[in-house]
Amino acid sequence: MLLLRMATRNLFRQARRNALSMVSIIMGVFIIVIGTGFARGFNENAVRGQIESVSGHVLTVPADYPTAGFRHPVDGAFRVPADTRAWLDESTTAWTPRIIATPRAIHKRESMRVRLIGVGPNDEAVFPRDVWQIEGAWPADDGTQVLVAKGPAKLLGVGLGDVLTLESRTVDGAMNAMRYQISGILNASNPMVDNVAVVLPLTVADQLLAADGRVTHVASLVDHRDDNHALAAGIEQRVDGVDARLWQDEVRDLLELGVAREKMFNTFGFCLLLMAATGIANTVLMAAFERVAEIGTLRSMGLQRRGVVAMFAMEGLWMGVLGGGLGVAMSGGLCWWYAQHPIDMTALIASKADQMSNVPVSAHLYTDFSVDTLMLAFVVGIGVAVLASIYPALSASKISPAEAVRPR
Questions:
Q1: Which DSSP category does 55 fall into?
Q2: Burial class of residue 136 (count of CB atoms within 10 Å of its CB; 0-12, 13-18, 19+)
Q3: Quick one: 389 and 280 in the same domain?
Q4: Which secondary-structure segment (H or E) carries 35?
Q5: Are 71 and 197 members of one domain?
Q6: pLDDT tens-digit readout, 384-405
Q7: Rounded Cα distance, 360 and 192, in Å
Q8: What residues contact 378, with CB distance under 8 A and at least 6 apart?
Q9: Do the Cβ atoms of 385 and 280 come closer than 8 Å?
Q10: Are residues 338 and 366 in contact, defined by beta-carbon separation less than 8 angstroms?
Q11: Residue 239 lies in a domain
Q12: How many Cα neighbours within 13 Å face the side chain of 219?
């Protein structure tokens, strides 16, 4: 207890110098926590973007369907039998069929390839539309209207009420073209939709592609997103010629990139902690030389070498506790706030839309708030401070009592 009181007193004897030494600990701990929170937040953003806009928890597509890019062939379209539909109703929390194709959109002299999305009546239960903004109205189910995303609308020079022609190869290989009135302009805050999409009710898309009830995609949700393997296996057993893909497989590459990003932040944080270690070692060493007479007096009064080491190590411990505690408090508070109140990335996504046409992202970025990360960063900060004070403490403990109290 005496050594603890002395260490505490000595810590505040050179408060300014010790505070400067603690800055690196604060920043190192802050970077580790914030970096981990945002890196894992980006991972969660990719997962949510994939699940909420592309695949659900399980995405059923024709066998050998392209895994990426702007290729959406319809020749492998499949039927979902009535008994399978009943089984999906019982086995999922929600599911929806879709038809996705790449017809040519034509308006006057302008034309471009678009991503046609034919959505089923239960589509919103699987793919939330909370951030969708529609200027106009949702297209009617009578086969006369279409919803155009803002990207194609701008490139084609169309607006509400204009007529758009969609020209596409049908499921059976013939060519078909139909004209639609634009009922609405869509801003989905998702580049995969905003850059290239034209949205139709499933029944209307069925007419254009002559699908006769066949679909190209079925997206399903389960109670817990990681418990999707059994559903995928069941779908493949019940429907011939399809692949049931898990969301985990669809975002694996993006998650690996996120892991690399997290390691980068951690490396930066540890570099700052190493800088902190150098500063603490220098601070404790200077304190030892300034208190030679005090150390000699304590040694002459019976304090052992290990007591001197313990006293200086406690000073390092205090710097680690204070610096680590401040770093954890600031970074933890920030992570907690953004875990509850996401960062709106709508403007950023819009500015990078051309580079993100096939990247599923969510418009809202949440950070990951983890008590385990906070505790780890706090312990690492303390450990670095204590270890950095060991060498100066050992040097101080070697001071001879007689030499220390000798008048200078």
A1: I
A2: middle
A3: yes
A4: helix 15-50
A5: yes
A6: 887 777 777 677 666 666 555 5
A7: 6
A8: 29, 324, 325, 327, 328
A9: yes
A10: yes
A11: no
A12: 26
Q: Is residue 235 part of a domain?
A: no
User: Count of domains in the chain?
Assistant: 2
Residue 195 vs residues 28, 353, 381: alpha-carbon distances, Å: 40, 7, 46
pLDDT at 105: 96
Q: Supply the DSSP symbol for 172.
A: T
Q: Record the tokens describing residue 92, joined without a space.
A: 């999922």
Q: How far is Cα 347 from Cα 341, in angstroms, rounded to an integer?
A: 17
Question: 272 and 331 in one domain?
Answer: yes
Greatest Cα pair distance in the chain: 105
Domain that holds residue 43: 2-50+253-405
DSSP 138: P
Q: Are residues 66 and 200 in the same domain?
A: yes
As a three-state string, the secondary structure of 254-279 is: HHHHHHHHHHHHHHHHHHHHHHHHHH
Evaluate whether 32 touches 377 at the Cβ level (below 8 Å).
yes
pTM over 0.85, yes/no: no
Q: Examine residue 118 and state whether it is found in any structural domain, yes or no.
A: yes
The residue from 179, 206, 221 where one domain ends is 221
Structural domain includes residue 228? no
CA distances 374 to 39, 54, 219, 258, 368, Å, are: 15, 33, 37, 19, 11
Which amino acid type is present at position 230? Answer: A
For 341-357, give one letter per residue: b (16+ CB within 10 A) or e.
eeeebeeebeeebeebb
> Is the same domain home to 268 and 378?
yes
Six token digits for residue 205: 């898309």
- Same-domain pairing of 81 and 41: no
DSSP 360: -
Q: Residue 290, Cβ neighbours under 10 Å: how many? A: 13
Around 141, how many Cα atoms within 13 Å sit in the side-chain half-sphere? 5
Residue given tokens 């200086």 in the structure block: 312
CA distance 159 to 169: 26
* CA 382 centroid distance within chain: 29
- Where among 172, 203, 221 does a domain terminate? 221
Are both 294 and 355 inside the same structural domain?
yes
Contact 118, 154 (CB under 8 A): no
Tokens encoding 122: 């239960």
Residue-wise pLDDT for 201-232, tens only, equals 999 999 999 999 999 999 999 999 999 999 99
